Amino acid sequence: MSVPNQTRRNTLILTSIVLGVAWAVVYLFLNYQISSSIEKQFQRVAASAKNLFEVNLEHDKIELELRLDKLIASKGLAKAVSSKDHESIASIVLPLYNELKLIQNSVNILTFRTNEGITLFRAHKPQYFGDKLNKNRTLMTDTNTMQRSFSGFEVGNLEMTYRITKPIFYNDVYVGNVELGISPENFLKNLNSIFEADIGVAVNSSLMNVLINKDGIAIGENYILIKGSENLKKHLEHEHNEDAELYKIDMSIPLNNHLSKTLGHLVIGFDMSGVAKKDREFMQHLFFMIVVIMLILGAIHHIGFSKMLEYFSKQVYTDHLTTLLNRHALNDNLLSLENKVLILSNIKEFSLINEIYGVDVGNEILIRVAEAFDEFAKKYNFDAYRISSDEFVLLKKEDNFEGDEYCKIIEELHNKLSSLKIFVVGVDEAISIEIYSGMAFNDKHPLEDAQMAIKKAKKQSLPYLMYSQKVDTKEYSQNVMRVKRCVKYALEHKNVIPFFQPITDRDGVVIKYEALARIVEFDGGEKKILPPCEFLDISMNSGLYIQIAKEMLVQSLSFFAKRSEKISINFLPNDFFNTSMMDTLMEQIKEFDSPRRVVVEITEQEGVENFKMLRKVVEKLREMGVQIAIDDFGSGYANYAHILEIKPDYLKIDGSLIQNILTDSDSQILVKSIIRFAQELNITTVAEFVENEKIFELLKEYGVDEFQGYYFGRPVDLCSIISPLPHQPEELLKI
To answer: Is the pLDDT at 376 greater than 90, yes or no?
Structure first.
């Protein structure tokens, strides 16, 4: 063997050894990372389960205590308990208990006892009466002795339950109590919709003397599992199995009694084998990729690098769902072509398809549509692209553009797509689609021009449109600039004015006004009043909104500081984070004899930047005496948890629900539920868009407290009536 061959062989051996050692180190490192990852994931899941338990416990406790209070307040119940009238108790309680079971089916105990501890009635076992009180029942004993409410977990004869007790008084004399019990697993009722988990209950072994069933499974030295899923029991009984390392058990959730003494813990088992399998599959794929990459790097031949470059180029320029070219490829090709024709298409109401059928079905539809576009593109020598969710592009070089010919091509494209019958697994019917299209030829910005053509086609209800100067959106841009100039002029010349719409009580008496922004515009000497829909969005996008809002604050509050009615001012959530706005509000409130005459309306919006800060500002306003209202409640986004935290004085029911309430049963149901929700929290309800007497009477029947709408009065320029401004006429301005 020649020296060069020997050198090459030695080099190959050395390279192989280095690669082998490197692969071994990488493999061991990845193994360690997987074990660490599994443990971290388990800790995150366990922490999430604990948070879920605490949130559900607090929520259900509040709800059940409210329902117990309502039950105790039932007409005749206290008297029936006092007189030990079983039949009367049963007739009052059973309907309410059945209703409670429908709402909270995990309630398994509802017992009424006398002040001596004698069981009068069990709603869950109506045939049982007259049982003596179990003196080991500390919770019940305390209730009888101290005549007050308690709640906490309690170990009974067969299991552990969460108990809530309430005393019952008749003519201010303690006559007995009611006890409600619910299984602790209920507080993790949503856990299996988030994680796959096995749930059980373990009690302190010192409490086992009160249990009939002592066949539980020991957990360590101090706890015994008295209830749990079969899967959890199996793993506890065989904790040394091979699978035990991948089955994690968490006991961090304490079950405390009413004295904050820990009686036991919730036992939650998480099978991490699925996570481990996925992680190991990922490790194998990653390890395989690392091996391949190292082999490629170890190779000298330029083909290896070329293939790798080709692969990554494909990843960059290919849409992974449809395998069509993507936006990056389109941008590059647009730069490389001088004469080109571009057809942009998107699917009509594709977002509705996703909402109705789900994202997976939506993806299947996109794949089928992409196949149709690709087939059509090959027929006419186009390149096909998918550039966003439901947007597709056809692009080709074209030196001799014939508009009529391409209109026929687009017509054929639309016919091809509309004739598609897409069948998807799990959907019984064939799904049909339609598209909008815009076309542009030989422009510097063909994609943008085609987008303007589509936008115009949608407005005109046309299936497609070719770009021209007529479809250019410059006119809209010019209107935006005109409105901005109008707003700036109005701010400089005090032409931003508040209109006030009355709000009445149930007798139709005006008790409050809502301030609504208007702008006075002089167009060719003719005076016009602009409503917010014509200037507010543009003002917000151009940085003029805060000035308008501050002007409204000063004028509205200064005017009503001298009147007797309340004044309601609208705020967006982010307004509370603006120091200048808040300073103006605080300064104006000082002019009022009572800050309770100022109502701050918070308009509901998704994505509040910092809810904790918002809540602090609201709390500060409430400390000053200002009242808080939630505007447009029920308009689509309503975070009930936030409502409970803010604790507003008013809920303004969204006008879209009120407008159709006479004919729309869904609106009636939703409005009733909002009213019940507000009544239980002692919140005053206000109905907007009350247009006529029929709506007014129906809402009064439902229990609405206050009313606003054209039936009582349109927005009015009260300021000009009392002291007209120089630039305004003295007549009453209405919209």
So the answer is: yes
Of 723, 722, 720, residue with least CA distance to 527: 720
Q: Return the amino acid letter for 12.
A: L
Give the number of other Cβ atoms within 10 Å of residue 294's Cβ. Answer: 15
Going by C-alpha positions, the residue among 555, 629, 551, 553 that lies closest to residue 596 is 629
CATH of the domain at 494: 3.20.20.450
Can you tell me the mean pLDDT for 219-244?
Answer: 69
Q: Do 285 and 413 belong to one domain?
A: no
Does residue 68 share a domain with residue 110?
yes
Most confident stretch, 181-190, 243-252, 300-309, 350-359: 350-359
Range of 36-40, 164-168, 501-505, 552-556 with top mean pLDDT: 501-505
Quote the CA–CA distance of 292 and 276 in Å, as a whole number.
24
- pLDDT tens, residue by residue, 263-301: 888 888 777 777 777 777 777 777 777 777 767 766 544
Written as one string, the DSSP assignment of 353-384 is HHHHH-HHHHHHHHHHHHHHHHHHHHHTT-EE
What's the number of domains the chain is made of?
4
Q: Rounded to whole angstroms, what are the CA distances from 430 to 345, 369, 418? A: 22, 14, 12
Distance CA 128, CA 108 (A): 15
Report whether pLDDT(347) > 90. yes
Distance of CA 9 to the CA centre of its chain: 65
Residue 269 is part of a domain; what is its CATH number? Answer: 3.30.450.20
Whether 730 is in a domain gets the answer no
Contact 455, 474 (CB under 8 A): no
The answer to the question of residue 563 being in a domain is yes
Amino acid occupying residue 548: I
Pull the structure tokens for residue 286. Answer: 């990653």
pLDDT at 607: 53
Q: Give the tokens for residue 287.
A: 């390890």
Residue 733, in any domain of the structure:
no
* Poorest-pLDDT segment among 54-63, 237-246, 487-496: 237-246
For residues 109 and 227, state if they share a domain. yes
Residue 706, H or E segment: strand 706-708
Pair 42, 53 in one domain: no
Predicted TM-score (pTM) above 0.70: no
Residue 64 counted as domain residue:
yes
- Cβ contacts of 523 within 8 Å, gap of 6 or more: none
Pair of tokens at residue 407: 């209109």
Q: Do residues 526 and 500 share a domain?
A: yes
Q: What is the DSSP string of 521-579?
A: EEETTEEEEE-GGGTHHHHHHTT-HHHHHHHHHHHHHHHHTTSSSEEEEEE-GGGGG-H
Q: What is the DSSP string of 267-310?
A: EEEEE-HHHHHHHHHHHHHHHHHHHHHHHHHH---HHHHHHHHH
Same-domain check for residues 130 and 66: yes
Domain that holds residue 440: 302-472
